[in-house]
């Protein structure tokens, strides 16, 4: 799936735009901790993998700036459990 990822800092949300539709994740930052409060995907994008792609891009952005993710939203918790590799010793 191809879309446009952005950090809409004014709205405190990451966005993944596909066509005319936007999946987004509301967040809060406290220092280097990124809390993912809510993940939303409109009906038109459900089942397409857009929310998963959004989460992957959020993880990549957090890794790039050295932030730790704390998922609050049930979807974010579930996605991270399924897709995050445990740290290697």
Structural topology:
Layout: E1 4-8, E2 13-18, E3 21-30, E4 33-40, H1 50-65, E5 68-71, H2 74-83
Parallel strand pairs: 4-5
Antiparallel strand pairs: 1-2, 2-3, 3-4
Report the order of strands and helices.
EEEEHEH
The biggest beta sheet is recorded as:
5 strands, mixed
Could you tell me how far the N terminus lies from the C terminus, measured between alpha carbons in angstroms? Answer: 34 Å
Determine the mean pLDDT: 94
Q: Trace the largest sheet across and list its strands.
A: 1-2-3-4-5
Structural class: alpha+beta
Whole-angstrom Rg: 13 Å
- What share of residues are in beta strands? 35-45%
- The quaternary structure here is single chain
**Contiguous uncertain segments of 5+ residues:** none
Spatial shape? globular
- How many helices? The count is 2
Total DSSP E strands: 5
Q: What share of residues is helical?
A: 25-40%
């Amino acid at each position: 799936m191809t879309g446009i990822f952005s950090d809409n800092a004014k709205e405190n949300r990451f966005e993944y735009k596909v066509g005319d539709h936007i999946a987004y994740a509301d967040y809060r930052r406290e220092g280097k901790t990124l809390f993912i409060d809510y993940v939303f995907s409109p009906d038109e994008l459900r089942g397409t993998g857009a929310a998963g792609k959004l989460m992957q891009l959020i993880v990549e952005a957090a890794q790039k700036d050295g932030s730790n993710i704390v998922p609050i939203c049930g979807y974010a918790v579930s996605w991270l459990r399924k897709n995050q590799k445990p740290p290697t010793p």
